[in-house]
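Hello,

Our lab assistant flagged a job as stuck in the queue for most of the afternoon. It eventually completed. Since we weren't sure the result was trustworthy after the delay, we are filing this so someone can double-check. Below is the sequence as submitted and the structure that was eventually returned. Let us know if re-running is recommended.
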Amino acid sequence: MDINTDVYDRHGHFMGHKGLYAPIENRLLMDWLKTKHDKKSARIAYLRMLGSDVQNNNGVFLTTTPSESDLKQRKTCDVTAANLSSITVYFSVRHCIESEWVNDRDQYQYPEASWEGDLEFQSDCLVYTLFHGQNRISALSGPNHWLPFTEQEVGAQEKFASHFMTDYISGKNRPATETTPDLFSQPQEASRANAPLSFSPEAAVMKAGRELWQYYHAQPEANPNAAFHDIRLHFQGRNEKGKMNSGSLDEHYTRLIAALRQNLKQLAKKIEPKVYEHGFLLR
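-- returned structure --
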């Protein structure tokens, strides 16, 4: 049974309407994600997953070194070329909407198939994932396959160990099954899978990210394979507890990361309505 409610803040001011829905068995986002697991292809990262409600979004991240407890409790999913599009959609859906008291118990749903044909949505989700703070991929703990730029684009001092992501973006190693919304149009979709990804204007985060990478690679001690997490750690450092500091003394870096985050927020606003349109969340 579905219920439509009125929502008021603590001062009694009307905020809008909120739908309450009874969950459908085996039709949550986690059930959908299970259909995307891939144990046959080469792993490029682990997705750490947790629950299917908004309040657990902080427990969702990408890493190269999951904890032993997460592996034992099966809280991880291999990320491969075959499921990368689905994983970045999952990641973006979980992080593009901030958790608030009015939505933190909302359950993510098994989506409609419409997302499969929305290639701009998929491209936006890939970009959002590449530059989000919960992307904890690090070259210090394993191969970094998440470099979104070429050596020439960022002025790298050495050759990268992996070109997986730039190849994927250019269409060189992107499986057709990741962009096939209609099984009866395989020839057309196969050629689409091999075409370079096109990014929407809202994905200007790529330009901001490139400027950040360029500044990092201008540093004399730059690691050519550094991931986004490594670049942030380089400029921000760690506190006495070993956690990354929230800011940096480098003023130019601070301006660059602020611009990147602002562009990321704009991209999140673009992705958010698609979360509801494709049925990942109910209003």
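-- support follow-up --
The delay was a queue issue, not a problem with the job. The result is valid. The CA atoms of residues 148 and 166 lie 5 Å apart. The longest strand covers residues 14-20.
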